[in-house]
Design a protein that fits this description.
Length: about 80
């Protein structure tokens, strides 16, 4: 699974992207984020407040309850503004 980080999420975690192999019980974005936060303080800093994290799965904006499977691309980023 490929995870992409953007904006201040990327700055806090210190990575733009990574290939991961989450546990089999990680079946949605919310569970993925919970698992990522166990990987260290940088992940907790970047993903600690779920009200401030937006998500896309396979380049489609979605919710934290979106189902994910191995091979998906998950992007995590701060809220966007239009202009």
């Amino acid at each position: 699974m490929r995870v992409l980080y953007f904006g201040w999420v990327r700055q806090r975690i210190g990575l733009a992207k990574e290939e991961i192999d989450p546990p089999a019980d990680v079946a949605d974005v919310r569970a993925l984020i919970a698992w990522l936060k166990t990987r260290g303080p940088a992940y907790e800093a970047g993903l600690g407040n779920l009200n401030q994290v937006r998500v896309a799965v396979n380049q489609e904006l979605t919710t934290l309850d979106a189902k994910i499977v191995i091979g998906d691309e998950v992007a995590l980023f701060p809220p966007m503004t239009g202009g």
